[in-house]
């Protein structure tokens, strides 16, 4: 006798919760150890430069996918349940092709910037921003493969390699470099990290093929389907920018407007507070493969899943916020004595990330319910708020000003998101763009 969907969902959530919370705890430890090791191998100025480059690669790899990784659980969960392998291949070819095209443009633009000695891309300056662009297409393809596995409810295979294996292997390779050579340089860290990313991408591709999730004899999506996918995925990508770009913009603007040391100190504070958005994304990843098909078959069931996920996110966020506020300043001291001055920035960032962690899943719910345009407006307003606040506060307050700008922007994003959610079924919203 086949189990009912409710029982199946319950079993999946129980097993998935164990995997993802295991991933959250060990993943944070592994990532933190990598950052601590890196801060010992590089000076605080060099560490800040590396974090700027890493932020650029992370942000760019998401943008060049046009939200393909974000929309995957919404559209692929049903295709996988229906064993529509042709659609999955078409999806990968479509967004993979977009990623390769845009990544080539990014690499070319960055190289030309280096040849022309423009800013941080200057070849003679050996800034890691120039080198890390070659890893961007690998990160983008890895995100797509991971989402395919997530959509198939294979949470361990989709999550653990990136959350635990990647930082753990990078730490081991960095320790080997530190013991083998007298001075570790940027390109050593980037190249070893790139090879690690490539290894995970190859393993996940092998896993996808092994599980027979795709068919070699594919069928391309028609023009209408591509347009529909982009109409869903692009707003999702822009909404994710609210979470990712705020921190990255702070790093970029600190690099321009503040002391070099502030960039490294702020990066350490952001790394510590990053536990909160990681927890939110982890919990969301558990529920998204269920919510997509449920919206098509039973909207009331999808709403119940959303409320269940939201309650869990709030509870976990409150607990983790208290933990970071209590021990976060102590954790900063492991980076070095001078990093302790980032304690105030850490507390402000913790408040900022806490507020948005409780709201980010509501933003995803809006997107899944056809409110992508409103979410795009919220994202633009939030980024504008953060940029203007950074211009105002960083020259006066340095990294504390950057943290305050992030906090203000995330409060704006959270308030607008919940406002839009409350009025979603009550008629026209002031944030509605006329068709």
What distance lies between the first and last C-alpha atoms, to the nearest angstrom?
A: 49 Å
Indicate the structural class.
Answer: mainly alpha
Number of domains: 1
Measured by DSSP, the beta-strand proportion falls in: under 5%
* Count of extended strands: 0
> Tell me about the biggest sheet?
none
The whole-angstrom Rg is: 21 Å
**Basic shape:** globular
| Helix proportion range | over 70%
Q: What is the overall number of helices?
A: 16
* Rounded average pLDDT: 83
Order of helices and strands: HHHHHHHHHHHHHHHH
As residue ranges, the low-confidence spans are: 120-126, 429-435
Organism: Photobacterium arenosum
InterPro entries: Poly_Biosynth_Transport, Polysacc_synth
Membrane topology: Multi-pass membrane protein
Protein name: Oligosaccharide flippase family protein
Structure description:
With 435 residues, the chain is mainly α. The chain has one domain (5-422). Helix content is 81%, strand content 0%. The chain has helices at 5-41, 44-63, 68-81, 85-115, 128-132, 136-151, 155-180, 186-210, 223-257, 260-273, 275-297, 299-332, 343-357, 360-368, 372-397, 399-422. The longest helix is centred in the first third of the chain and has 37 residues, at 5-41. It is a multi-pass membrane protein.
Tell me the layout of helices and strands.
Blueprint: H1 5-41, H2 44-63, H3 68-81, H4 85-115, H5 128-132, H6 136-151, H7 155-180, H8 186-210, H9 223-257, H10 260-273, H11 275-297, H12 299-332, H13 343-357, H14 360-368, H15 372-397, H16 399-422
């Amino acid at each position: 006798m086949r189990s009912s969907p409710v029982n199946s969902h319950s079993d999946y959530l129980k097993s998935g919760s164990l995997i993802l919370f295991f991933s959250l705890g060990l993943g944070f430890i592994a990532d933190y150890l990598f950052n601590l090791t890196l801060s010992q191998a590089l000076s605080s100025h060099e560490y800040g430069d590396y974090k700027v480059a890493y932020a650029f690669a992370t942000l760019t790899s998401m943008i060049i996918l046009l939200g393909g990784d974000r929309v995957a659980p919404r559209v692929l969960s049903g295709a996988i349940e229906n064993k529509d392998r042709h659609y999955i291949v078409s999806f990968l070819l479509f967004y993979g092709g977009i990623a390769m095209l845009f990544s080539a443009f990014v690499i070319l633009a960055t190289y030309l910037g280096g040849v022309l000695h423009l800013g941080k891309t200057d070849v003679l300056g050996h800034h890691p921003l120039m080198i890390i662009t070659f890893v961007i297409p690998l990160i983008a393809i890895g995100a797509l493969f991971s989402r395919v596995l997530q959509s198939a409810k294979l949470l361990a295979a989709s999550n653990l390699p990136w959350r635990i294996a990647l930082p753990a292997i990078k730490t081991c390779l960095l320790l080997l470099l530190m013991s083998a050579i007298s001075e570790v340089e940027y390109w050593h860290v980037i190249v070893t990290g790139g090879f690690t990313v490539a290894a995970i991408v190859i393993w996940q591709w092998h896993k996808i093929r092994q599980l027979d999730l795709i068919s070699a004899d594919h069928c391309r999506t028609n023009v209408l389907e591509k347009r529909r996918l982009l109409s869903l995925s692009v707003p999702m990508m822009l909404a994710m920018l609210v979470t990712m770009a705020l921190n990255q913009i702070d790093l970029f603007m600190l690099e321009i407007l503040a002391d070099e040391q502030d960039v490294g100190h702020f990066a350490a504070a952001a790394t510590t507070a990053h536990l909160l958005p990681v927890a939110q994304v982890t919990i969301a990843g558990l529920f998204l493969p269920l919510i997509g098909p449920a919206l098509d078959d039973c909207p009331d069931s999808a709403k119940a899943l959303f409320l269940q996920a939201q309650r869990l996110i709030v509870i976990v966020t409150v607990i983790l916020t208290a933990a970071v506020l209590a021990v976060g300043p102590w954790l900063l001291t492991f980076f070095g004595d001078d990093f302790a001055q980032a304690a105030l920035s850490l507390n402000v960032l913790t408040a900022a990330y806490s507020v948005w962690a409780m709201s980010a899943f509501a933003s995803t719910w809006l997107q899944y319910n056809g409110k992508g345009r409103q979410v795009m407006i919220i994202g633009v307003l939030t980024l504008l708020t953060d940029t203007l606040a950074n211009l105002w506060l960083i020259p006066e307050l340095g990294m504390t000003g950057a943290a305050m700008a992030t906090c203000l922007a995330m409060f704006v994003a959270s308030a607008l998101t919940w406002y839009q959610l409350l009025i979603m079924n009550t008629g026209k919203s002031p944030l509605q763009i006329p068709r």
